[in-house]
Amino acid sequence: MVRPASRAALAAAAVTLTLTLTACSSDSSIKKSESGADSDFTTVEYAGKATGPIDSFSWALYAEPSTLDWVHSNTYPQNTVLSNVCEGLLRLNPDLSTSPALAESVEQPDGKTYVYKIRSGVKFHDGAPLTAEDVAYSLNRNLDPKVGSYLGASYGNVQSIKATGDLEVTVKLKQPDSLFNSMLTTAAGYVDSKAYVESKGEGYGSPSGLVDCTGPFELSSWDQGSAITLGAYDGYWDHDLTPKAKQVVFKFYEDASARVTALRTGEVDGNFFITPSGTETLKDTGAGKLYYGKNPTVRSLMTWHLDGPLADPRIRQALSMAIDRQNVIEAAFNGAATPAKSPVSPDAYSYAENVYKAAYDALPPSDPDIKAAKKLVEEAGAPSEPIVVASSPADPSYNLTALAVQAAGQAIGLHVAIKTLPIQQYNGLFNDKEARKDIDLYSTTWNLDIPDPLEFFGLYAYPGKYNNYNGFDDPEYVKTAQQAMAATDENTRAELTVRLQKQFVDQTLWIPLFNVPVTVFQSNKIAGTPTGISYMAGPWAAYVGAAK
To answer: In a 10 Å sphere around its CB, with 0-12 CB exposed, 13-18 middle and 19+ buried, how is residue 99 labelled?
Structure first.
């Protein structure tokens, strides 16, 4: 059995990746699970079961959120907090199913209309009652260009959102959109008090302005640079999800080793973002236990620009073909991953699985092919300027990935430079076009908010929208995406979506790297943490209580 790599082994692996593309040796008897981990890793839905209430528990974040305004929530730290404080019309559950939340029911009288009956008796954390006007105002923030919502792609087909009764909201679409309703389980559907948001102005979501939502926890305080504290909301409407903990404290640890030390020593009780290098220390510690959950997301290299050194798709394809993914998996992920052929994991196939699986199997292999990659570079001509890939010390796998990309480039005649950034600056590239103007590739584990491949490929259906980072604009792609969103038959939707996937992969708009499971550490003090990716949108902390 291959054991998780030590820090020394990771350093040695970095040297190996820099100098050569020779794959690390591995034990051929290792059996991979569906999540991509070796047989030591078992995927579970919850990390044990809470036995009762608890006064408080703490949770580590790899960075301090830049804001808690949900329309600007696009990173793991922000969503890990907000998912317990705010909620939408629908809820994403730990098993990735959907259930009613602030909307008691939803009707669709025609393909372009949704009518939501708002739940009565719900109160905001300041005690004010939830109204249809609050819901319509909150959803409309995603349409307001002055607000600049990062979630606008979810509203690309929305024509209007209006309160059509005291407890009724009607959404009119420009054309049918099979994703819109499901996306209301995410931050795109969060609701806050109109009066509160307007009263805080530009300070809304800041350490001084905070937020005022309806979730099971309320935002008690934000001690900038130190911690965010949530308190259980006594007036929460859903008694089945009454928090077991009276308080949750989120602490910020930008340094990966400091985060692992805090978990090992009991300074903090849990973390969803365990770096692969930290699993060796935490796997055998007496302070708690590692758990693994299903993950429909993929670690990929985003392309920030489709001009400059990556303007020719053959250069992007060649670089992707030359990367030794399995080498990085063994060195950086301790074998707990599988090479990816698409930026969407097979774990996202929640319908028409046979259609999606057949299309995935038909995609080009992920094994390195240096000879073919060199030929593409010769045909396209190597760019004169370097290809710049960003890295961050927050996760050693970022650096190992960047080194692998650099080695792949060197092997096929491309100059790849690495730019290492502090974690806040690294995360900030999403929001700052100026900061990323000199960076071509960015390693990220892109979160799928709902288990539907169309959610990812639909991002590029709206040229000019926030999530279309590299400005890809192709009429054929847009037309196919719109047809997929309008499809009511699941097989038809899947067949159209795999056409988008093929075009995306053929163009190498992103470079898919690895399918990785969600990794969770939970201390012996607590139990019940949901292990899957639902923590990004659902009230995961409400399930957490005492272990004994």
So the answer is: exposed
Per-residue pLDDT for 20 more than 50? no
Q: Give the Cα separation of 242 and 235 in Å (integer).
A: 9
User: Looking at residue 242, what is its pLDDT?
Assistant: 97
Residue 248: CB partners within 8 Å, gap ≥ 6? 56, 57, 58, 59, 84, 217, 229, 230, 541, 544
pLDDT, residue 41, reads 58
- Tokens standing for 165? 């009764």
352 three-state secondary structure: coil
The answer to whether the predicted template modeling score (pTM) of the entire model surpasses 0.85 is no
Q: Where are the alpha helices (DSSP H) in 432-548?
A: 453-457, 475-486, 490-507
65-74, 176-185, 463-472: least confidently modelled range: 463-472
- Beta-sheet pairing, 416-420 with 526-527: unpaired
Asked if 134 and 192 touch (Cβ cutoff 8 Å), the reply is yes
Helices 396-411, 313-322: axis angle to 10 degrees equals 110
Helices (H), 215-312: 256-265, 279-283
- Measured between alpha carbons, how far is 452 from 446 in angstroms, rounded to an integer? 13
Per the structure block, which two tokens stand in for 37?
């981990």
Closest by CA to 102, choosing from 199, 168, 15, 177, is 168
Which residues, in sequence order, are bridge partners of residue 338? Answer: 515
Beta strands in 15-127 (DSSP E): 46-47, 54-61, 90-92, 98-100, 103-110, 113-118
Residue with the two structure tokens 């910020």: 252
Is there a contact between 414 and 465 (Cβ–Cβ < 8 Å)?
no
Instruction: For residues 83 and 533, give the distance between their C-alpha atoms in angstroms, rounded to a whole number.
Output: 11
**Residue 105 CB neighbours (<10 A):** 10
For residue 293, list its beta bridge partners: 518
Bridge partners for 288 per DSSP:
523
Give per-residue pLDDT as tens, 28-49: 222 333 333 343 557 789 999 9
The whole-angstrom separation of Cα 319 and Cα 26 is: 24
Nearest to 520 by CA among 544, 496, 490: 544
Instruction: Give me the amino acid identity at 348.
Output: A
Q: Using the structure block, give the residue that is written with the tokens 């839905």.
A: 45
Give helix 313-322 / helix 490-507 axis angle, nearest 10°: 90
Tokens for 541?
Answer: 């902390």
In DSSP terms, which residues pair with 388 in a beta bridge? Answer: 417
Are the CB atoms for 225 and 34 separated by under 8 Å?
A: no
Over residues 485-521, the pLDDT tens digits come to 888 889 999 999 999 999 999 999 999 999 888 889 9
Which domains, and CATH codes, for the chain?
46-68+204-294+518-546 (3.40.190.10), 86-199 (3.90.76.10), 299-515 (3.10.105.10)
Give the per-residue SS3 of 70-93. HHHCCCHHHHHHHHHHCCCCEEEC
